[in-house]
Amino acid sequence: MKMRLSYAVLLLWLMTIIGFVWYWSSQDRSVNPNPNYEQTIKKLEQQNDSLLAINQGLQEQIAEQLEKQEGIKEELKKRNKDLEQLKYRKIEKIRAIGNYDNDELYRFFAEFETDSLHH
User: Fold this and answer.
1) Among 5, 28, 72, 73, which residue has the least CB neighbours within 10 Å?
2) 95-108: per-residue pLDDT in tens?
């Protein structure tokens, strides 16, 4: 008899739990506690669209700046190459002048013109 009673109590508890679960699951949960919910959602969607547009503009600016950066890097490489060539030419001229004898040095500097004024 005790066994049947405990099964009956267990069955009653299970039915109670099932009843509560069914009750809570059948409740209409679409009732929103925030009365401005729809307005808030629309406002947030507008802000999101605005931020996406701003982000797109910034992405385009980044792409432009990266293109400019590449152009500047190429220009720097070209100018550095030009500088190296000028340095090499200067060194070659200095070496050539360094090998001159006295007569050649006199001729070299005698033809040398300056912008200075005679006093």
Assistant:
1) 28
2) 988 888 888 888 87
